[in-house]
Amino acid sequence: MTFSLPRLIRPGLAAVIALVTAAAVHADEVQVAVAANFTAPIQAIAADFEKDTGHKLIAAYGATGQFYTQIKNGAPFEVFLSADDTTPQKLETEGDTVKGSRFTYAVGTLALWSAKEGYVDAKGDVLKQNAFKHLSIANPKAAPYGLAATQVLAKEGLTEKLKDKLVEGQNITQAYQFVSTGNAELGFVALSQIYKDGKVTSGSAWIVPASMHDPIKQDAVILNKGKDSAAAKALVEYLKGPKAAAVIKSYGYEL
Amino acid sequence: MPLSSADFSAIWLTIKLASLTTVILLVIGTPIALWLSRTRSWWRGPIGAVVALPLVLPPTVIGFYLLLTMGPHGYFGQFTQWLGLGTLTFSFAGLVIGSVIYSMPFVVQPLQNAFSAIGTRPLEVAATLRANPWDTFFSVILPLARPGFITASILGFAHTVGEFGVVLMIGGNIPDKTRVVSVQIYDHVEAMEYAQAHWLAGAMVVFAFLVLLALYSSRKTKMGWS
């Protein structure tokens, strides 16, 4: 039996193309870029959304600044759930979104958290006592929760004092990870990461009053890639609905 | 000036990290490579495989285990706390340890190949001339394996400069301690500071090319590194 190369190339190529395009989006799927702090809620929402509408939600989790770069460079996302409101606004003015689709889907709450029980007091005085070695925050240049954390420190007059104790995660997930592994005694995280059904799930936390930092308004937009997608529109409508709102609130967000 | 002072301190830190890592790796890598090239022990396979692990493992795996083992609940973390050093995550010392593990095969393998290429004959001759093991090492092995040492140093240094994932996972992005160039570039991109990202990233491309150019141009002997 002999194989001729050209005869093999064509079916081979066809198989490769089939494999590649099989990974592409079907009409009833929606690809969503989700801010890291919203990971747990969107997973809960996705299950309901898929059951109620029949559409499938495919989520990617990451830092907002990173998503901006990816979207500007042709990422296949149809909906973007940002951790802030400025990035979706920027995409909107740059013509990368569907006009009029931007809305605030959640307002984030910041929490000072330790994996140790009883370590963080209800007023956050642990910060002033300054008996820890590492305070974990998200990168303030790229993550809104990190920026809010630096605003809280400034308001408490602790910026200079704690400067050498700050460790930065690249996004809020990593800020959480440093604390949960005990490498940092405490850190500023998103309440949604440590909160379920009205209470803190583990360790100890100070829920930072919203008045201590700029509001963490988290906006969503439909991107140009989702212009004609029914699933993208359905997801946005679903996020505005009462069922999603209940889930979002149960993770400690305001609406 | 396109590069900020923060960029320059990241560059300086990277050079410091890579230099220290390379020196440490040459010191501990040489006996390991020598042993691997000479031994007939059953352990040769397993030890060689362990040394080569970082070639295959994603940096996230190394970073994840370092974060856990160097942390306050990990074995190594408890050991360093017992020594009174505290934990080594978020510290320059921690990055050095991570880099030594991560760049190990890039130093050990070229050395091992260089030692193997010497063969047993020169060592037997040295022994008949009553050279003690130290004499043999410094007067016979070291000069003969010189190209291997050069390759190992260049690759160890360059690979540490190119390190990202491990640093990201255990570093905590602290200026002058753990914020190396690769992390600084990532930061610039995330903060949408593309111009600064370009300058640093471009400099890295030039650096990497020059290093490899030096490596490939200098390799006149058959002494390979892979």
From TrEMBL, chain A:
Record-annotated membrane-spanning stretches: none
Source organism per UniProt: Pseudomonas veronii
InterPro entries referenced in this protein's UniProt entry, alphabetically: AvModA-like_subst-bd (IPR044084), ModA (IPR005950), ModA/WtpA (IPR050682)
Signal peptide (UniProt feature, chain positions): 1-27
Gene (name only): modA
Protein name according to UniProt: Molybdate ABC transporter substrate-binding protein
UniProt cross-references to NCBIfam families, sorted A to Z: modA
Residues at which molybdate binds: T64, I172
UniProt xrefs under Pfam families: SBP_bac_11
Assembly: The complex is composed of two ATP-binding proteins (ModC), two transmembrane proteins (ModB) and a solute-binding protein (ModA).
Gene3D superfamilies: Periplasmic binding protein-like II (3.40.190.10)
Automatic annotation (TrEMBL), chain B:
CDD domains: TM_PBP2
Major localisation: membrane
Key word Metal-binding present: no
Topological relation to the membrane, as annotated: Multi-pass membrane protein
Domain ABC transmembrane type-1, chain residue ranges per copy: 11-217
Family membership noted in the UniProt record: Belongs to the binding-protein-dependent transport system permease family. CysTW subfamily.
Protein name: Molybdenum transport system permease
Protein species of origin: Pseudomonas veronii
Gene: modB
